[in-house]
Structure formats: structure tokens, C-alpha cells
Amino acid sequence: MQSSSKAGGNGDAKHLVCVTGAGSFIGSWVVKELLLRGYRVRGTARDPAHRKNAHLLALDGAGERLTLCRADVMHGDSLRAAFWGCRGVFHIASPVSNDPELVPEAVEGTRNVINAAADAGVRRVVFTSSYGAVHMDPNRSPDTVVTTTTTANKPAYNLYCCAKMMAEVAATEEAARRGLELAVVVPATTIGPALQQTLNFSSDHVARFLMGAKPAYQNAVTAYVDVRDVARAHALVYEHPEARSHRYLCVSAVLHRAHFVRLLKDLFPQYPVTAKCEDDGKPRVREYRFSNQKLGDLGLEFTDMRTSLYETVICLQHRGHVPVIVPRHRACL
């Protein structure tokens, strides 16, 4: 494992960092990863005392090196208070919604985070973008390799992705204006075991196909990555001095929906996995290529999709989000 002593060029491995949206699916794993690497972590939440954040306090090292504080990305004073004394900030908090009224929160909230970090003397911010800010371009050829230099073509039909794209632009502009180091992680649809009790969007995506709640799957492809790889990616780009001013594509696999549901059925044949494809009258959409080499060069080894899907479903069972159906033969990886 890469030593955290190089963290952002900031020296001492035990220094303090802040994670916005600490109780979220990705945020929780980033907190866990940072604690594992020896950092002191301050996590922000709108209501730190709420039971939905209790899982954070149970993490290894949390008792000695984790504090939670109240902050809202739309209130600069709360952010400056949260960031004070921190050398690094991981900005993960963002509304996961297609509600147009929440777009300003994603964009202006990010602008507020960057400015508050600069005001508080933070050295590096790691911003969590979205794969939608990279790949959503209906005019792109499937032969084009999607990389961190690729930019979406204003995906207005998906306001969440549009908001993340605009937020990344805002983060880049403000960081340059304020002289703040910025590294950007661009994760795909993120699956894997959850630390929090609540059901997040991408895990629900898996659960609905597993239980056949979707009568048919789309003729579409989706990029996926394991949440633990996303967390490690955040730590790696924070720790490597040369990562500033770079984007890092965090993708493990691109699967057609038919491939995705077939994997689920192979792993869990006892479940009524969605098996029918919507007839849209079009040829099967091709799985496009991508490059995650930049994170590979930092030492990240990606979890294979079969393992990610298996452990996602096991977690859904343990959390009570899907019923446990006993197989005739145990699922094998």
C-alpha cells in the first residue's frame, strides 16, 4: 500500500482531513479508507447525531480519530468551520436527484466548498465527479476510447449528470482562481457492499433487477465500479503530489444490460432476475471501451464485477433490502 506520508505533499500521515457527505455510500467508504491509512478524519453531515450516521462511529479507528460535525454546502460559514485545521478536503456531498431545483445546490455548493477550503488554508481538495460528466454524448462513436480527456455533451436529459458536470467545471475554475490543488475522481455507477443501513440508488438498481421488479431491461450499456475501489482512488489521488490538476476515471467494467442480468442470474439462480429485453427496434448497443490506466499507474487494482455483484447482493440480504432465498446449490464466484 502506498504510504500516506506523501499525502498531497503535506507530510505527516496523521494530519487532519475532512470528508463532506461522510455518511453517504461513497463517503462512508472514503472515511473508512482514510482511517485505515492513519488519518484523523472530520466528517460533515447536516445532522451528525442522526442514527443514519451511527455506522461511521463503529469503524475501526473512529473512536480515536473520527469526529462528525454539522455543515451544509450552501452555508459557507459552516464549511469554513468544518475545514479549519484540515490539510485536505474530500468533497463527496451532492444531491443524487434529477430534480432541477437541486442543480444549484450541486454547483453552487461545490463552489462554496472550494472557496471555504481556500479560506481555511486547505492544501488539496479531492472532488467526486460522475461518469456522466465524461461519457454522456449521443454522438460519440462506440469505437472511441473513453478517457479522462473525454467530456460529456451537456447531458440535459439527465439532470444529475448535468449537475455533476457543471459542478466539476465550477470546482476547476474556483480552485484555479484561489490557487488550490484539485484532483478529480470520476466514478462510474458504483456498486458493492454498503456500510450505511439505508438503500442507496445504485444498490437499489441491483436489487430491482435481482427481484425482477423491472419487467424488462433496456438495450443499453452501463459502466460500473466497486465502491471500495472508489474509496481507494480518492486516497491515492490525495496522496500523490503529481495528481493535482488531473482527472481520474474510476471504472472497472462496461456491461450491456443483458450481460449484467446474466451475471446476476449465474450468481443467484434462485432469484427471479429480470430476463426480458425491451424491444426498441434497434440493434444491440455495443459495449464501448475505456481507459482506467491513470489510476492503475497509481497502484489501484480494480475489483472484478463478479465479486462486486456477489458482495452487493449478500449485503442487500444482510440489510433486509431483499429476501434471502436459499439456493439449491450455493452461488460460486
TrEMBL record:
Keywords: Oxidoreductase. Residues 17-245 form the NAD-dependent epimerase/dehydratase domain. One of its GO terms (molecular function) is oxidoreductase activity, acting on the CH-OH group of donors, NAD or NADP as acceptor. PANTHER family: NAD DEPENDENT EPIMERASE/DEHYDRATASE (PTHR10366), NAD-DEPENDENT EPIMERASE_DEHYDRATASE DOMAIN-CONTAINING PROTEIN (PTHR10366:SF672). InterPro entries: Epimerase_deHydtase (IPR001509), NAD(P)-bd_dom_sf (IPR036291), NAD(P)_dehydrat-like (IPR050425). The keyword Transferase does not apply. This is NAD-dependent epimerase/dehydratase domain-containing protein. Signal peptide: none annotated. Gene3D superfamilies: NAD(P)-binding Rossmann-like Domain. Pfam families: Epimerase. The keyword Oxidoreductase applies. One of its GO terms (biological process) is lignin biosynthetic process. It comes from the Eukaryota.
